[in-house]
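B., you asked whether I could sanity-check this one before it goes into the benchmark set. Here's the sequence:
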Amino acid sequence: MTEPGRAHGGALLAALLAEHGVRHVFGVPGGQTLALYDGIADVDGLAHVQVRDERSAAYAADAYARVTGRAGVCDATVGPGAAKLPSGLAEALGASVPVLALVSDLPARLAPHRYRGAASQALDQAALLAPVTKWQAAVPDVGTLPALVRQAFREATTGRPGPVALFLPQDVLDGPAPAGTDAGGGAAGGSGGSPPRAGTDGGRISRFGRFPAFRPVPEPGDVGAAAAVLRAAQRPFILAGGGVLHSAAGSDVVALAERLSAAVGTTLSGKGAIAEDHPLAVGVTGSMGTAAAAAAMAEADVVLLAGAKASGGATFSWTLPRPDQRVVQVDVDPAELGRAFGWALPVLADARQGVRALRAALEPGDEPPGPELDRAPWRAHLRELAAVWRAGRDAERASDAVPIAPQRVLAEIEAALGGRDILICDASLASGWGGAYLEQRRAGRRVLARRCSR
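And here's what the prediction gave me:
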């Protein structure tokens, strides 16, 4: 460690985290990261949350990001600690959640020994985490730490959000921070971009600590073409994905659905975009979803994919929507537009901006009014589909069969949940049961399901 009274790399890193509004770091202490914890202890409002192992740290950072709208941060020690991160980072990558993994590394002088198999705990961490991160970088010295930390947050929270990793050699964390290197912008090595802006909480907080960091608006021509298709729909269906919750666009989706009399189904990650007792809600889509959502999506003539990357689970292995159904797709990631369904009308935009633009385009304007479609039969049919599905579910909930059916377990959990409680589901069937059988009567992120995608 550096001499007392002299700022070290760990203190600089902690200050940079605070600059981005970070309040909690999840991880397991290790000898290589002691300087980081030393720095965290000196920053008001920044705390370290110790977990059992690094896998839990990555999952906790993911959940924290989804619930708070802030980038999640986790840390791991070199070698065995880093080797436990991939499962949690892969989940964040699939669900488009910004997580910054701070991974300690060997001191720079020991780097050659990594490749001779002689350095304790050493492995090729960059290669290990490359498939499960959106971006990664190794910090060569303290002078470049501010630029790379800021770049990491930018990468994590812009475009399609996702996990990133910074590899931090122990001597970078332990060594002294050169004079003039701080978290206030204009640091040695360059600030790597614009200085922090004033935050809503009174401090100078960088916008890249939250997501979405930017809200791109759609092209007017794309909005007009998509609105024309939606306006002509007789049986519209909206599939709301995790991007709707990331963008806090749930109320906008509901308003658009009410304007169109559109059914609203969600992906597992999008559950909570609409209160599921809403007359237009049909539940979670896909092979592990509700029968009402499956029927409504199959019978729709127009499907709007909002903040949903059309994963196989939500689309019945990409069999819905069919080529004979018109598809409109709103997504912040241009690579997703038309990827699964090449005939989709693309709208490149943040989910909230895109949905609001579509709603505005569908409001009556100065042009002569055209014939208003009568979607009353579609609304009545949606209510019937939901009622039939609920009747079957409730019969299963009432079963006293042994072993206890998941439907009954979820009914008990639903009855016990308070207004601020969140249901955490494990992978595979547990996520499907939680998504389909827990009826969420309040909009918002109340269910976190693993191994799912937007």
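One thing to flag: Residues 66 and 97 are 7 Å apart (CA to CA). Otherwise nothing jumped out at me.
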